[in-house]
C-alpha cells in the first residue's frame, strides 16, 4: 500500500503530465479552445514587435525566447498553410530586427535545420541510425572550398560559381551516401550507428592528413562569397536567406517524398525490414535512396557553411556535428520536419543564447552563470526534454499514434 | 459558423502582415541600433558596407557607462586549460589599469571553443555587445575564421596566442597579434637545434592541429635548409593519453632530438612516455608547452628538455613584476600565453587612451579607424619585450632573442 | 622482433582498458538495448576519484611506504563506489523514465548526461589536468629492448582480473543469471519472478564499477585526469563492444584487445594519424562478413 501511494505520488510529480492535462482541460472549454487554436495568431505580431525592440529581460535575449515560444505554438498547431505562411513571414521578418550575433545564430539554426531535415530522411523516415552525417557536410564544404578558394592546396582552384558547385556537391554527397550505404546494407540498428560513426571519422582524418590536397589541419581560407544577381551575399544575414530557402525546399521535397511510394517503402523498411522485403519492397534500392537523398541535403549545407565561414578546417567536422544533428532530429520529434526545425532552434540556439544568462534576483547575483555554466545547463536541458517528452517535442502524428498504442507492448519481445 | 472560424485566421494573418510591414518600414527609417550606442559599419539592416570603404563609425560610451573590452578565449573543453589563464590575465590588466579618462573598464569574456564556428559566434557576440576592441581569439584556426566578421565591423583585434603562419597571410583590417608568427619561431628553433645544440637528426611530432602541424612544417623547412635531417614525422591525437605505440616507433629509430609541436597535455604525456621507455634523444617543444603544468604533468621526465618561447626581451623585470601580480591576484603560477594576453590588453588600452575624447555632454567618443591607426604605430615595452607591428599586423623583432628554456630542477630556466 | 613484441604489449595494455569499458556498454545494451553514451564519463569520474583519494593519502606518508597496495586498493574501491552511485543516479533520473520510450530517446538523454558531467568536472577542476601523486616508481622490467613498466603490469593484471571476475559474476551468480535472463527476454524474466528493475540496476552498477576501477588504474598509468579524458576511450570501447558483438561479454573483451592491438600495429605501419582509419576499416570488414559482430548472436529480426 505505501509503495502504491509513493508510486502515485511519483507519477503525480511528473510535470509533463500536468502540462498535458492542463492543455487538455483548457481545450475543453470553448474559450480555452479558441485561445489555444488562435491565440498565437494574435500573439505573433505583438511578440514580433516586442522582439524587434529586443529588451534584455532576465538576461536572456527576448527575441529568441519569443521566437522559440511562437515557433513552438505555430509548429505544434495543425494550422496548415496559414501557419506555414506566418512562419515564413516571421523567419524572414524577425532577423531584420536582430543584431549581428542573433543573425549569426539564426544562420546556424537554419543550417542545422537543413542538415536535420536531411538526416531525418535517413533516421526518421527510413529508420537507419546514422552517426556519421558530418561526412556529407564536410564533403560539400571542402568541395566548394577547394574548387573556389584561390589558395587551396589541390591546385584545382578553378573559381567556379557557388551556384554551380551547389548541385555538384549534392551529387558528390549523394554518391558518397551510396558508397557508405553499400557495405552496411546488411547491418542493423547500433551496428549501423558505429560503422557510420567510423565513416564520419575516416573522412575527417583523411581531410586532416591529405595535406597535398586539402591543406591538412592548416585549413582552406579566403573562400569567396557567392553572388546573386550581381550582389555579393557577403554576411551570415544574406546567406541566412539562402539556407532558409534551402530549408523550405528540403522540407517540401522531403515531405513530398515521404507521402509518395518511396516514403511508404521507407516506412515499411523501418517497421519491419524482413516483412517489407517479403512484400516485394526492394530494400536495397530504397535504403540507398534514403542515404543518397539525406546526404545530398548535407552536402548542400556544407557548401553554404563553407561560403559563410570563408575558412574551413578539418576540426570543424568532428563527431560533435553528427551528434548534434541527430540530437536535434530526435528532440524535435523524429519523422517530422516541423519538429526538426524546432529541435534546431533549441539545440543550436540554446547554448548560444545562454551566453547571456545571468540571475539578478533579490539576493542572488550570478553574473557569469551563462558564460561558465552554459554547457552544464544545456546538458541538463537535454535530459529534461527527453524525460518529459520522450517522443520529442513535435512527434509526427503517425509516430505518436504508434507510441500511444505501443505503450503496453514490450519492445524487446519482438522476436 | 464554419465560415467565421475560417475567416478569422485570414483576418489575423492580414493584420499580422500589416503589422510586420509597418515594423519593417519603421525599422528602415530610423537607426534601430542605438540601443547598443555603436554603429558598426556593416551591420545595418539595409545591407553591408564593404569594410575597405571606410566609414567605420564611432563608438560612444555614455557618461557613467563602462568601456567594454572583449575577451575571446577558450572556456570549454580541455583547451580551457590554456584559455582560462588568458582570460584571467586580460581581466587583471583591466583591473590594474582601472579607468580611462574617468571611464571604468569591464571585460566581456566569450568562449571561442578554439575552433572556427565557435570563434565566429564569439566574434558576433562581442560585436553585438558593443565592445571597443577585442583581445583574442585564442587559437589560430578560430582567428582565421573570425577575421572577416571583425574586419567587417572595423573592430580592433589583438591576439596573444594565434601563432599560425596563415593568420596574417593576408593583411586583415584591424587585426594584430602579439604572439609570434610560427614562421619566426620555427626558424629560430631549427637554428638553435642545428647550431647551438648540434643535433642533426630530428624526429618531428605534431598534434595534428593548425598550430602544431604548422610549426613543424616551418621547422622542417628551416632544419633541412640548414643541412639537418628529418628522420620521420609522427603524429599524436589531441585528447588521447597513451602514446605508447608512437613512443615505441620513435624508440626504434635513431635520432638526436624529438621536436614537438602541440600543447601541454600531449607534450607532457609524450615526454613522460619517451622517458619511461628509455628513449635518450633530447626533447624540445615550443610555446604551446611553455608552462609549469607541462613539467608537473610529465612526472619528472621533462627534466632537461628544451622549450622555445619566441623572441623575448633579455631584461625580465617587467615579466617578473607581472608574474608576481598574477600570483598575488589568483594564487597560482602564471600560465602560458598569459603574459602575451596582458600585453595585448595593455596595448589595446593604450591605443584607446590615445584616441578617445570626451565630448561636450561628457560621453567618451572613440573612432574605430583612428583606433586601428593608433595600434599600427604602437611601440610599447611589454612583459614579452618591445612590441611593434609590421603592415600585416605581425610583430617585428626588436632587441630580443628567441628565448630558449631548459627544464632544470623542475622549473623552466632561461638559457638564451 | 623486439619492437613488435613491444608494440603488442602497448596494444594489449590499452586494449585491456577498452575491454573493461566495453563491458559496461555491452552489459547495459544487453538488458536495455540502449547505448549508454555517458559510460565514458563514469570512467572519467573514476579517474578523478582515484586522484582525490590518492592525494588524500599522500599526506599520510606512512600508508604508502614501498608497495602501496592498500592505498591503491582503497583508491580503486573509491573509484568503483563513486562510479556506481553516479550510474544508479543516472539510471534513475535519466534512463528509467524512458524505458518504454522510442529507442533513440535514451541515447539523447545519455548524451545530455555526458555533456553535463564533462562540463561540471571542467568547472570543478578549472580545466586544469589533475596530476596523480607518484604511487609507483615509474620504471619497469627490461627484457632485452622490451620494457614493461610496473604500472603497465598492474594495468594488464587488473584488467584481466576484472574481466575474469565479471565473467564469473555473469555466469556463476544468481544476479548474473538474472541479468542474462532479462537480456534474453525482459517480460518472460519478469514472469519468472525476476525483479527487472533491480536487475537493470545491478547491470548498471556492475558496468559502472568496472569503468570506475578502470578509470583509477588508467589514471595511474597516464598520471593525469582531465574532464575530457572519458570521451575517446568511450568511443573506442563502444567500437570494441560492437566489433565483438554488442550484448556479448566475451565479445566485448575480444573486441577491446583486438582494437588495442590493431591501433598499436597500424601506428607502426601507417602512422598514428591513420590508426583510427585502420580500426574502422577493420570493423567494417568484420561486420561485412559477420554483421552481428565476432561473438554476437544472430538477431535477424531485431532492428
Q: Which sheet architecture does the biggest sheet of chain C show? A: 2 strands, antiparallel
Categorize the overall geometry of chain C: globular
Report the structural category of chain A.
mainly alpha
Instruction: Return the structural class of chain C.
Output: mainly alpha
Low-confidence stretches of chain A: 9-20, 39-60, 405-415
Please state roughly what percent of the residues of chain A sit in beta strands, choosing from under 5%, 5-15%, 15-25%, 25-35%, 35-45% or over 45%: under 5%
Computed Rg of chain A: 23 Å
Pick out its properties:
heterotrimer; A: 415 residues; mainly alpha; two-stranded antiparallel sheet; 18 helices; 8 strands; globular; disordered C terminus; B: 416 residues; alpha/beta; 7-stranded mixed β-sheet; 12 helices; 18 strands; elongated; disordered N terminus
Task: Provide a descriptive summary of the structure in words.
The complex is a heterotrimer of chains A (415), B (416) and C (303). With 415 residues, chain A is mainly alpha-helical. Chain A has helices at residues 2-12, 15-28, 30-53, 62-76, 80-93, 100-125, 134-148, 162-181, 189-209, 211-214, 236-258, 261-271, 273-278, 283-309, 319-332, 337-353, 369-388, 397-406; strands at 56-57, 60-61, 220-221, 227-228, 231-232, 311-312, 359-361, 364-366. Chain A is built from 18 helices and 8 strands. In chain A, a hairpin with a 2-residue loop joins strand 4 and strand 5. In chain A, helix 7 packs parallel to helix 9. In chain B, the strands form 4 sheets. Chain B has a 7-stranded mixed β-sheet with strand order 9-8-10-11-12-17-18. A 6-stranded mixed β-sheet of chain B has the order 3-4-2-5-6-7, with helices on both faces. The longest helix of chain B is centred in the first third of the chain and has 28 residues, at 2-29. Chain B has helices spanning 2-29, 80-97, 116-129, 140-152, 182-196, 210-226, 244-251, 264-277, 292-297, 317-330, 338-355, 368-376; strands at 58-61, 67-73, 99-100, 103-111, 133-135, 156-159, 175-177, 201-206, 229-235, 257-261, 282-285, 306-312, 357-358, 364-367, 380-382, 385-387, 401-408, 411-414. Chain C has a two-stranded antiparallel ribbon with strand order 1-4. A two-stranded antiparallel ribbon of chain C has the order 2-3. In chain C, 71% of the residues lie in helices and 4% in strands. Chains in contact: A-B, A-C, B-C.
Amino acid at each position: 500500500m505505501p509503495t502504491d501511494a509513493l508510486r502515485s505520488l511519483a507519477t503525480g510529480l511528473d510535470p509533463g503530465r500536468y502540462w498535458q492535462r492542463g492543455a487538455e482541460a483548457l481545450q475543453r472549454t470553448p474559450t480555452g479552445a479558441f485561445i489555444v487554436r488562435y491565440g498565437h495568431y494574435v500573439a505573433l505580431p505583438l511578440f514580433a514587435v516586442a522582439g524587434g525592440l529586443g529588451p534584455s529581460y532576465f538576461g536572456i535575449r527576448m527575441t529568441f525566447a519569443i521566437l522559440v515560444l511562437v515557433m513552438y505554438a505555430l509548429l505544434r498547431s495543425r494550422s496548415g498553410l496559414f501557419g506555414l505562411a506566418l512562419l515564413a513571414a516571421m523567419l524572414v521578418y524577425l532577423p531584420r530586427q536582430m543584431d549581428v550575433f542573433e543573425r549569426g545564430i539564426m544562420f546556424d539554426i537554419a543550417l542545422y535545420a537543413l542538415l536535420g531535415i536531411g538526416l531525418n530522411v535517413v533516421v526518421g523516415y527510413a529508420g537507419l541510425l546514422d552517426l556519421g552525417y558530418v561526412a556529407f557536410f564536410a564533403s560539400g564544404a571542402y568541395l566548394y572550398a577547394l574548387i573556389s578558394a584561390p589558395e587551396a592546396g589541390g591546385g584545382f582552384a578553378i573559381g567556379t560559381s557557388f551556384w554551380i558547385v551547389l548541385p555538384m556537391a549534392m551529387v558528390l554527397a549523394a554518391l558518397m551516401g551510396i558508397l557508405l550505404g553499400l557495405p552496411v546494407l546488411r547491418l542493423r540498428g547500433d551496428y549501423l550507428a558505429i560503422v557510420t560513426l567510423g565513416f564520419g571519422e575516416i573522412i575527417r582524418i583523411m581531410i586532416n592528413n591529405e595535406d597535398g590536397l586539402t591543406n591538412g589541419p592548416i585549413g582552406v581560407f579566403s573562400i569567396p562569397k557567392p553572388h546573386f544577381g550581381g550582389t555579393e551575399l557577403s554576411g551570415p544575414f544574406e546567406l541566412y536567406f539562402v539556407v532558409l530557402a534551402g530549408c523550405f525546399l528540403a522540407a517540401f521535397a522531403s515531405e513530398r517524398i515521404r507521402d509518395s511510394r518511396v516514403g511508404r517503402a521507407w516506412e515499411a523498411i523501418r517497421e519491419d525490414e524482413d516483412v517489407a522485403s517479403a512484400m516485394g519492397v526492394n530494400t536495397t534500392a530504397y535504403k540507398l535512396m534514403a542515404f543518397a537523398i539525406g546526404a545530398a541535403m548535407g552536402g548542400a549545407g556544407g557548401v553554404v557553411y563553407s561560403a559563410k565561414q570563408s575558412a574551413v578546417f578539418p576540426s570543424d567536422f568532428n563527431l560533435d556535428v553528427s551528434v548534434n544533428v541527430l540530437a536535434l532530429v530526435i528532440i524535435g520529434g523524429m519523422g517530422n520536419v516541423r519538429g526538426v526545425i524546432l529541435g534546431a532552434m533549441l539545440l543550436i540556439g540554446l547554448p548560444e543564447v545562454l551566453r547571456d544568462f545571468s540571475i539578478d534576483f533579490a539576493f542572488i547575483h550570478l553574473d557569469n552563470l551563462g558564460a561558465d555554466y552554459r554547457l552544464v545547463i544545456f546538458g541538463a536541458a537535454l535530459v529534461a526534454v527527453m524525460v518529459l517528452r520522450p517522443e520529442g517535442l513535435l512527434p509526427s502524428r503517425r509516430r505518436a499514434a504508434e507510441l500511444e498504442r505501443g505503450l503496453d507492448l514490450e519492445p524487446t519481445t519482438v522476436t | 459558423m464554419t465560415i467565421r472560424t475560417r475567416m478569422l485566421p485570414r483576418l489575423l494573418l492580414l493584420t499580422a502582415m500589416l503589422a510586420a510591414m509597418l515594423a519593417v518600414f519603421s525599422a528602415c527609417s530610423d537607426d534601430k541600433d542605438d540601443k547598443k550606442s555603436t554603429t558598426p559599419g556593416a551591420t545595418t539592416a539595409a545591407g553591408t558596407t564593404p569594410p575597405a570603404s571606410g566609414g567605420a563609425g564611432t563608438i560612444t560610451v555614455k557618461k557613467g557607462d563602462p568601456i567594454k573590452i572583449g575577451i575571446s578565449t577558450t572556456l570549454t573543453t580541455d583547451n580551457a586549460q590554456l584559455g582560462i589563464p588568458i582570460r584571467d590575465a586580460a581581466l587583471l590588466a583591466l583591473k590594474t589599469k582601472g579607468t580611462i579618462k574617468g571611464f571604468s573598464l569591464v571585460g566581456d569574456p566569450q568562449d571561442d571553443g578554439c575552433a572556427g564556428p565557435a570563434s565566429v559566434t564569439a566574434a558576433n557576440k562581442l560585436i553585438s555587445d558593443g565592445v571597443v576592441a577585442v583581445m583574442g581569439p585564442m587559437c589560430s584556426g578560430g582567428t582565421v575564421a573570425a577575421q572577416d566578421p571583425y574586419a567587417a565591423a572595423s573592430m580592433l583585434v589583438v591576439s596573444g596566442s594565434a601563432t599560425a603562419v596563415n593568420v596574417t597571410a593576408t593583411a586583415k583590417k584591424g587585426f594584430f597579434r602579439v604572439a609570434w608568427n610560427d614562421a619566426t619561431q620555427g626558424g629560430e628553433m631549427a637554428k638553435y637545434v642545428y647550431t647551438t645544440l648540434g643535433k642533426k637528426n630530428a624526429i618531428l611530432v605534431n598534434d595534428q592541429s593548425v598550430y602544431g602541424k604548422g610549426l613543424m612544417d616551418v621547422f622542417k623547412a628551416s632544419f633541412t635548409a640548414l643541412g639537418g635531417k628529418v628522420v620521420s614525422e609522427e603524429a599524436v591525437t589531441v585528447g588521447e593519453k597513451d602514446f605508447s605505440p608512437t613512443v615505441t616507433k620513435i624508440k626504434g629509430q635513431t635520432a638526436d632530438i624529438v621536436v614537438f609541436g602541440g600543447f601541454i597535455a600531449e607534450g607532457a604525456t609524450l615526454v613522460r612516455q619517451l622517458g619511461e621507455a628509455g628513449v635518450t634523444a633530447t626533447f624540445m617543444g615550443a610555446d604551446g608547452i611553455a608552462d609549469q603544468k607541462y613539467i608537473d604533468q610529465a612526472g619528472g621526465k621533462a627534466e632537461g628538455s628544451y622549450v622555445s618561447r619566441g623572441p623575448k626581451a633579455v631584461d625580465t623585470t617587467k615579466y617578473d613584476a607581472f608574474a608576481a601580480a598574477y600570483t598575488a591576484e589568483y594564487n597560482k603560477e602564471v600560465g602560458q600565453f598569459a603574459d602575451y594576453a596582458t600585453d595585448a590588453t595593455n596595448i589595446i588600452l593604450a591605443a584607446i587612451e590615445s584616441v578617445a575624447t570626451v565630448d561636450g555632454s561628457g560621453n567618451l567618443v572613440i573612432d574605430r579607424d583612428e583606433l586601428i591607426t593608433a595600434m599600427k604605430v604602437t611601440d610599447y615595452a611589454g612583459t614579452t619585450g618591445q612590441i611593434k607591428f609590421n603592415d600585416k599586423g605581425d610583430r617585428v623583432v626588436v632587441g630580443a632573442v628567441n628565448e630558449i628554456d631548459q627544464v632544470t630542477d623542475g622549473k623552466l630556466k632561461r638559457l638564451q | 622482433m623486439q619492437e613488435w613484441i613491444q608494440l603488442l604489449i602497448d596494444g594489449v595494455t590499452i586494449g585491456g582498458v577498452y575491454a573493461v569499458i566495453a563491458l559496461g556498454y555491452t552489459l547495459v545494451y544487453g538488458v536495455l538495448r540502449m547505448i549508454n553514451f555517458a559510460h565514458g564519463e563514469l570512467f572519467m569520474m573514476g579517474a578523478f576519484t582515484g586522484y582525490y583519494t590518492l592525494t588524500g593519502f599522500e599526506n599520510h606518508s606512512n600508508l604508502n611506504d614501498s608497495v602501496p597496495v592498500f592505498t591503491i586498493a582503497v583508491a580503486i574501491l573509491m573509484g568503483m563506489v563513486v562510479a556506481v552511485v553516479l550510474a544508479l543516479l543516472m539510471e534513475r533520473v535519466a534512463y528509467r523514465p524512458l524505458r518504454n520510450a522510442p529507442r533513440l530517446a535514451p541515447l539523447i538523454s545519455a548524451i545530455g548526461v555526458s555533456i553535463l558531467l564533462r562540463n561540471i568536472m571542467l568547472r570543478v577542476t578549472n580545466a586544469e589536468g589533475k596530476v596523480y601523486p607518484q604511487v609507483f616508481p615509474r620504471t619497469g622490467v627490461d627484457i632485452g629492448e622490451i620494457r614493461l613498466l610496473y604500472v603497465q603490469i598492474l594495468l594488464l593484471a587488473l584488467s584481466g582480473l576484472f574481466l575474469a571476475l565479471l565473467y564469473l559474476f555473469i555466469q556463476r551468480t544468481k544476479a548474473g543469471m538474472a541479468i542474462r535472463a532479462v537480456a534474453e527476454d525482459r517480460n518472460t524474466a519478469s514472469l519468472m519472478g525476476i525483479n527487472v528493475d533491480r536487475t537493470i540496476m545491478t547491470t548498471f552498477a556492475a558496468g559502472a564499477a568496472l569503468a570506475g576501477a578502470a578509470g583509477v588504474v588508467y589514471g595511474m598509468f597516464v598520471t593525469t585526469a582531465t574532464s575530457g579524458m572519458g570521451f575517446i576511450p568511450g568511443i573506442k570501447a563502444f567500437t570494441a563492444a560492437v566489433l565483438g558483438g554488442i550484448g556479448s561479454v566475451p565479445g566485448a573483451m575480444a573486441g577491446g584487445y583486438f582494437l588495442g592491438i590493431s591501433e598499436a600495429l597500424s601506428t607502426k605501419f601507417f602512422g598514428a594519424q591513420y590508426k583510427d582509419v585502420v580500426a574502422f576499416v577493420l570493423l567494417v570488414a568484420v561486420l561485412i562478413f559477420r554483421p552481428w559482430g565476432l561473438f554476437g548472436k544472430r538477431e535477424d529480426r531485431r532492428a
